[in-house]
Design brief:
Blueprint lengths: L1 H43 L11 H10 L6 E9 L6 E12 L2 E12 L1
Antiparallel strand pairs: 1-2, 2-3
Length: about 110
């Protein structure tokens, strides 16, 4: 009975860890996509001046306001070309720690004028 209980406890503990890892991965992916969509709204509105790299402090403040301080998000915009043939590559990376291991999710998109 003791061996069965130990095996059951191990299985439950592992199941909880896998569920937590999946939740954190999904949250990180959602946060990265939210950043991409924010920049898409700037682009769609013609606010090309907003298509610049935000500071880490701005990202940190936004995540804290959203109740997600355990995540770190970096959004990098790489422009190229000149008007009217400009493009912007937007990459949003979200990093988080899970049981002492750093994990990262990155979403990228391309906007073309």
């Amino acid at each position: 009975i003791g061996v069965a209980i130990a095996a059951l406890f191990t299985a439950i503990t592992q199941g909880v860890y896998v569920q937590k890892a999946a939740e954190m991965e999904a949250d990180a992916s959602d946060l990265a996509n939210q950043a991409i969509e924010k920049y898409r709204s700037y682009f769609s509105a013609g606010n090309y001046d907003y298509l610049v790299t935000r500071s880490a402090a701005e990202e940190e403040a936004e995540l804290a306001a959203m109740g997600r301080p355990q995540f770190r998000r970096t959004t990098v915009v790489t422009p190229s070309g000149t008007a009217p043939n400009r493009t912007w590559v937007v990459a949003a990376s979200v990093t988080y720690d899970l049981k002492g291991k750093s994990r990262n999710v990155t979403c990228r998109t391309l906007f073309a004028e």
